[in-house]
Task: inverse folding
């Protein structure tokens, strides 16, 4: 039961617990450490007369020794976690399986959709920040501008929370579920002041400005890749079903050309199988790119929208 | 010591663990429903400790994952506030759905307790 001596300080206890939980889900480890620290510090605050070592010795019987706590967390939390989590895509061993397996990954579709959506949200965020900021700042020389500026800053926080929800649902990056700005015992005016001095307000605005160029880039990339790969796949199929003709040169070289009733491709007949293979490979590569972009954007959003020190 | 004693002990622990699996959620909901204001993990643990003995006197670290599960199920609501004594505290408070669940669970509990009691009546010497 007893592995090593009992810890005598809170950091030691937490370190011991961390070691006992080695190999567990990082989120579970974080939760367990957080809970333990809360309990230990509260216990210490409740018993001002006793030393840290005494408190920890007492806690070992009420809260549990690090090893016991680790077992309890493994038992209770792991079962629930696995029950709540969506089924992970089946892991494929071969390189070929991994490459084509992306088609069964919902995350790739969601990321692709996010890339298309980001043009709309990007335009909206950009317009909102530019118009809101300049209007309220310009009007703050008059009395009307001040409440407008406060409202604008509040709206940026709400929008950043909304964007966080979109990012979590579509890109799978864990984002805060609720804003944690309220601090008990601060007046409404102090809270308004906090809003202006909190660096996250400003980074959220920066994020919203950057969403326009990023959104244009994501949208263009997604549409170009999708259309190109679909055209490559469609050309040979259209030829083989007799709808399109090969070796058609109307206005220079064209992969697929719709000109009135004539559907044609500049490809020679022997090139069609290659086009089909290229198209399919490109389509799967597009899914991979979308998933990669989604992952990177998730990290980027987390960095600019989430308060680093906050427990979400 | 005798093997029989050890075995009886571990049987008792196993039984307590199984009992507490269901009743701890009920007790947590009851504590939060009875308290007018949000409570954090340590407070809840200490409140339960006061009712002492039996199943609920198990290790208090077991309460935290259950609190999280209840919150995930929408029976509890939580928020985080800074504290002077350490990391920010996660406060829990019961939701309307939690109260409904508590009523249903409490009824189920009383029915179970009564029937178990009356069965046990027969075994009394």
Result:
């Amino acid at each position: 039961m007893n592995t090593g001596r009992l810890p005598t300080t809170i950091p030691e206890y937490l370190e011991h617990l961390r070691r006992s939980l080695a190999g567990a889900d990082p989120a579970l480890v974080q939760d367990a450490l957080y809970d333990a620290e809360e309990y230990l510090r509260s216990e210490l605050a409740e018993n001002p007369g006793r030393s840290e070592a005494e408190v920890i010795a007492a806690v070992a019987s009420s809260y549990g020794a690090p090893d016991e706590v680790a077992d309890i967390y493994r038992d209770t939390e792991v079962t629930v976690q696995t029950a709540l989590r969506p089924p992970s895509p089946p892991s494929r061993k071969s390189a070929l399986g991994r490459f084509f397996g992306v088609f069964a990954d919902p995350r790739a579709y969601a990321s692709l959709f996010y890339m298309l959506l980001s043009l709309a949200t990007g335009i909206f965020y950009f317009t909102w920040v530019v118009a809101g900021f300049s209007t309220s700042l310009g009007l703050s020389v008059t009395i009307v501008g001040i409440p407008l500026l406060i409202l604008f800053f509040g709206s940026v926080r709400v929008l950043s929370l909304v964007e966080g929800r979109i990012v979590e649902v579509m890109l799978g990056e864990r984002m805060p579920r609720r804003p944690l700005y309220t601090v008990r015992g601060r007046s409404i005016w102090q809270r308004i002041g906090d809003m202006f001095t909190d660096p996250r307000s400003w980074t959220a605005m920066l994020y919203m400005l950057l969403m326009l160029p990023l959104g244009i880039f994501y949208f263009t990339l997604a549409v170009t890749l999708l259309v190109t790969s679909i055209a490559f796949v469609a050309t040979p199929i259209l030829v083989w079903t007799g709808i399109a003709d090969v070796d058609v040169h109307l206005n220079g070289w064209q992969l697929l050309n719709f000109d009135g009733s004539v559907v044609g491709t500049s490809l020679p007949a022997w090139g069609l199988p290659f086009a089909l293979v290229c198209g399919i490979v490109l389509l799967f590569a597009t899914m991979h790119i979308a998933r990669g972009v989604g992952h990177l954007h998730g990290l980027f959003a987390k960095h600019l929208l989430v308060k680093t020190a906050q427990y979400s | 010591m005798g093997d029989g004693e050890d075995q009886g002990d571990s049987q008792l622990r196993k039984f307590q663990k199984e009992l507490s699996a269901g009743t701890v959620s009920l007790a947590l909901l009851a504590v939060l429903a009875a308290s007018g204001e949000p409570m954090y993990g340590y407070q809840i643990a200490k409140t339960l400790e006061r009712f002492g003995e039996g199943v609920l006197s198990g290790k208090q670290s077991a309460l935290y994952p259950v609190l999280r599960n209840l919150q995930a199920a929408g029976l509890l609501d939580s928020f985080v506030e800074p504290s002077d004594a350490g990391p920010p505290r996660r406060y829990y408070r019961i939701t309307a759905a939690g109260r409904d669940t508590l009523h249903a669970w409490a009824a189920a509990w009383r029915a179970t307790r009564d029937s178990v009691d009356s069965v046990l009546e027969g075994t009394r010497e």
